[in-house]
Amino acid sequence: MNHPTYHRVDVDDISVFYRKAGDPTKPTLLLLHGFPSSSHMFRDLIPMLADRFHLIAPDIPGFGQSESPSRSKFSYTFDNLAKVIASFIEILGIERFALYAFDIGAPIGFRVAMGHPERVTAIISQNGNAYEDALGEVWEPIRRYWVDPTKPNREALREIMKPAAIRWQYEHGVSRLPLISPDGYSLDAFYMARPDAEEIQLDIALDYASNVAMYPAFQAYFREHQPRLLAIWGDRDPFFLAVGAEAFRRDLPNAEVRLLDAGHFAVETHTSEIANSIVAFLR
User: Fold this and answer.
1) Contact between residue 218 and residue 110 where contact means Cβ atoms under 8 Å apart
2) Rounded to whole angstroms, what are the CA distances from 266 to 95, 103, 146, 221?
3) For 141, which DSSP code?
4) Which pTM value belongs to this model?
5) For 70-124, what is each residue's pLDDT tens digit?
6) Would you tell me which CATH number, out of the four given (3.40.50.2000, 3.90.550.10, 1.20.59.20, 3.40.50.1820), belongs to the domain 5-137+211-282?
7) Whether residue 270 lies in the annotated active site
8) Looking at 33, 40, 264, 270, which residue is catalytic?
9) Fewer CB within 10 Å: C terminus or N terminus of the chain?
10) d(CA 24, CA 52)
């Protein structure tokens, strides 16, 4: 059961791909990936946890092996992506789960948690932000697009979809580059080269503004429901600064915070440390 198996399920007429591993009678851990990746980012983490947990890792629509509906049929907003994940949870019959949220998986996961707070046993936020002061300088071109969604501002973001920029996201801030497998960023670049993939991601980038607008609502959810939370963070992440990990304690005084000598994709370089921290946190 430690080896993942690979599946598809129809969710609101969208084919959603997911990985699963572990004993279904054990506590469930739902893993939500980030941009520009897929559940492939958990390829090393899942086997380390599968003896203790039931692990489910879907590809968000528009990413990885999940279907990418045409933009004329599906609006790529975070509200809609969260609805798909919420329906996915219902279809699989997941009653209670801990949430592992990374990057864009965090605002999707937080939306799901707000909808059913009684189902969420704990949250592991790995570079998954909920505080505006954690947004680094690299967000400035995206902020301009939010304020003024013109074609020139949209085109200016296209560079972050290119292979060199995707690789930079994996390697920036990493002190030991030989730990970074080329498989991750190469696969992401392959998926990004598919027809319409860049346009979908630019739509998602535009709607990220809705997440910043919802940060106060996420924070209110934390304060009201006090979910157990572990913020485990690459401390040289240029997108979500380390202050974002510490910020959870404003609303969750008992939050556990662990900063790693890592960049944005901390799970690529610190898989064992993250796995051990999750086991200790959820024990």
Assistant:
1) yes
2) 29, 11, 28, 26
3) H
4) 0.97
5) 999 999 999 999 999 999 999 999 999 999 999 999 999 999 999 999 999 999 9
6) 3.40.50.1820
7) no
8) 264
9) C
10) 10
